[in-house]
Amino acid sequence: MLKLLRHFCNMKPPTNAALLHxxxxxxxxxxxxxxxxxxxxxxxxxxxxxxxTRVGYSGxxxxxxxxxxxxxxxxxxxxxxxxxxxxxxxxxxxFWANHEYGLTKKLKxxxxxxxxxxxxxxxxxxxxxYKVMQNQCNGQLRTEIAPAGPFYPAxxxxxxxxxxxxxxxxxxxxxxSKKLQTSHVAARLNGYLVGIGGKTQFEQDxxxxxxxxxxxxxxxxxxxxxxGGGLAC
Length: 233
What we know:
By secondary structure, the protein is α+β, with helices and mostly antiparallel strands. The protein has helices spanning 2-9, 37-45, 88-97, 120-136, 161-164, 167-173, 179-182, 184-192, 199-209, 213-226, and strands spanning 28-34, 50-58, 74-81, 113-117, 144-147, 152-153. It folds into two domains: 25-154, Peptide methionine sulphoxide reductase MsrA (Peptide Methionine Sulfoxide Reductase, Chain A, 2-Layer Sandwich), CATH 3.30.1060.10; 156-228, no CATH class. A six-stranded mixed sheet has the order 5-4-1-3-2-6. The protein contains ten helices and six strands; from the N terminus they run H-E-H-E-E-H-E-H-E-E-H-H-H-H-H-H. Belongs to the MsrA Met sulfoxide reductase family. Its EC number is 1.8.4.11.
């Protein structure tokens, strides 16, 4: 591991377009509040069909919220997805399966279970899935559904939080504050580094994402070390 880190320390940011930061295809947006947004950024980032992710604050009326003063906003993840690869209904299944939606305790507004829809079809799908879950939970569901409003990106240190824990790798990928919110590579690695996404998918992604040998080996070792460890914030 130390040998790999020394390699990264001596690497300069890439000067070519080999890394797949940008994916230029038609996408749709989805926005979910699922508690702490760090783990959700990793979860959705490695999901096939999800192109970009960013975390931030939404669902309220407070102007220009920030982490220490969210007002009536909620921590959310906003993602761009390819509807030809993954459906909104699939994303809703992930939403319900991967967070606490208020069965046993009242949630703080900051961590509210929340679906913000961007079009009528999303509203219909969200409300339909809500009814199913409400029946399963004997009417104790506390998830809110509302139209998407202004989205305020969270501070830079929250974006791809797990990936940013590997500073030399980030430097070698040429990531700046903008790319942390827009890069496809960043979204993927933010999940692989904590051991999710599956080894088969990761190995298939190495070439597609444009990782060089040293970058791939570093991420592979981290993936294997953390696989099965869960996604606690």
